[in-house]
């Protein structure tokens, strides 16, 4: 599989959300404006969360005009919003170029978590995932990722709640849109931006090995999750074609490097598929691989049914058996609580349905 950088939107103007505070400082300097204006713009964008430059009333009119001339606001038009009985809210948004993306708000006892999309579609081809069925259209810009969190926050504003954590686990492979993802993260964690604690953010990758090394050097407290889904090379290649490009042993080596370099634990995501990767022998094999990590944690995810795929759910007792085998081998494992199953909240399912109706 050839992994070149995917294309991004060829927008006429950059989005205001595409810029970090440092980018704004630079732009303000180049524009010959007073330095403190950068902080004011940032404040309007992320604290007051306005949706036009006209509303930035403490900026001189000439500066507002310059901003209108040079930047756009991201438009996320709400095509559909589904609310689950368990409080999960799933949005289907249309971007300026009519492509559709999904964003999910999940309610937990510890706060509200938002799951964001980083690409329009995905080319990684995981066989259990609806997001990849029609391939990759394009990367999102940093601003298009940020706008999803701002929208989620606006949804929570009437009840005075806040977005307290973020998972980058929506449609797309974030490590294939690395630079945009890093800019997004900078704005999320900035005390003058959305100010979300680094330890409350998780980035999940299917195993783009070079960028695991790169992420290890970023010196952040952001959590890393690896979608492992199989205990060996052969099975992983069947379930995840990315494994043919970055084989299992290379992935594990990169993870070992990350842990040694950062001192942080990795969460391994394991989607259980009935009769495919959920047998006791798979659990034993996985435990042998992961017990070499000092603090490995496995998230067991009973797979969601995708109508275009053949996978079936693992019976409840077998899920517990799998968990017990890991724990007996001193590998910490939790079973992920299913959220929003009554609203097709599995990644890519709403977009896939929307596309069936002729949309992009
Ligand atoms: S699971 Fe993630 S990486 Fe794999 S195809 Fe789906 S969106 Fe892409």
From TrEMBL:
Binding annotation for S-adenosyl-L-methionine: 172-173, 204, 227-229, 304
Keyword Acetylation assigned: no
GO terms assigned for molecular function: 4 iron, 4 sulfur cluster binding; metal ion binding; rRNA (adenine(2503)-C2-)-methyltransferase activity; rRNA binding; tRNA (adenine(37)-C2)-methyltransferase activity; tRNA binding
Keywords for this protein: 4Fe-4S, Cytoplasm, Disulfide bond, Iron, Iron-sulfur, Metal-binding, Methyltransferase, rRNA processing, S-adenosyl-L-methionine, Transferase, tRNA processing
Catalytic residues (UniProt): 102, 347
Cofactor requirements of the protein: [4Fe-4S] cluster
Catalytic activity entry: adenosine(2503) in 23S rRNA + 2 reduced [2Fe-2S]-[ferredoxin] + 2 S-adenosyl-L-methionine = 2-methyladenosine(2503) in 23S rRNA + 5'-deoxyadenosine + L-methionine + 2 oxidized [2Fe-2S]-[ferredoxin] + S-adenosyl-L-homocysteine; adenosine(37) in tRNA + 2 reduced [2Fe-2S]-[ferredoxin] + 2 S-adenosyl-L-methionine = 2-methyladenosine(37) in tRNA + 5'-deoxyadenosine + L-methionine + 2 oxidized [2Fe-2S]-[ferredoxin] + S-adenosyl-L-homocysteine
Residues that coordinate or bind [4Fe-4S] cluster: 122, 126, 129
Chief place of localization: cytoplasm
PROSITE patterns: RADICAL_SAM
Pfam family, one: Radical_SAM
Residue span(s) of domain Radical SAM core: 108-342
Protein localization: Cytoplasm
InterPro entries cross-referenced by the UniProt entry: Aldolase_TIM (IPR013785), Methyltransferase_A (IPR040072), RlmN_N (IPR048641), RNA_MTrfase_RlmN (IPR027492), rRNA_lsu_MTrfase_RlmN/Cfr (IPR004383), rSAM (IPR007197), rSAM_sf (IPR058240)
GO BP term (any one): tRNA methylation
Record-level GO cellular component terms: cytoplasm
Listed HAMAP family: RNA_methyltr_RlmN
Record function comment: Specifically methylates position 2 of adenine 2503 in 23S rRNA and position 2 of adenine 37 in tRNAs.
PANTHER family reported for this sequence: 23S RRNA METHYLTRANSFERASE, RADICAL SAM CORE DOMAIN-CONTAINING PROTEIN
Record's miscellaneous remark: Reaction proceeds by a ping-pong mechanism involving intermediate methylation of a conserved cysteine residue.
Family note: Belongs to the radical SAM superfamily. RlmN family.
Descriptive protein name: Probable dual-specificity RNA methyltransferase RlmN
Species name: Paenibacillus rigui
Lineage, uppermost ranks: Bacteria, Bacillati, Bacillota, Bacilli, Bacillales
